[in-house]
Write a structure and sequence with these properties.
Length: 98
């Protein structure tokens, strides 16, 4: 079973991802990833491999929304142990408007 401290670190990591992405804080964004990171979205044909792909995707999103992209994560639960975890959550991506 995964510890409460590890769960909080995982949730903090996801919150930092959203904040750095939403507010274009690229210097804080890249350290959030391990070099061989892979991001996939359930029910979509998206797959981003590597840190540079993560940053490029976030920057493309920033350009498409004029910097108004906002991420919300809800209904978290974490399965796993101290060696490997899977995080499940509801993801809402919105445009904050003009």
């Amino acid at each position: 079973m995964i510890s409460a401290a590890s769960r909080l670190q995982i949730l903090d990591l996801i919150a930092r991802f959203a904040h750095c992405s939403d507010y274009c804080e690229w210097d804080g964004f890249s350290p959030l990833f391990v070099p061989d990171v892979i991001t996939e979205f359930a029910d979509f044909d998206f797959k981003y491999e590597g840190v540079e792909a993560q940053i490029k995707r976030a920057q493309d999103s920033e350009r498409m929304t004029g910097g108004k992209n906002r991420h919300y994560y809800l209904n978290f639960y974490v399965d796993g142990d101290e060696n490997q975890a899977v995080v499940n959550y509801f993801f809402l991506n919105t445009n904050a408007g003009n």
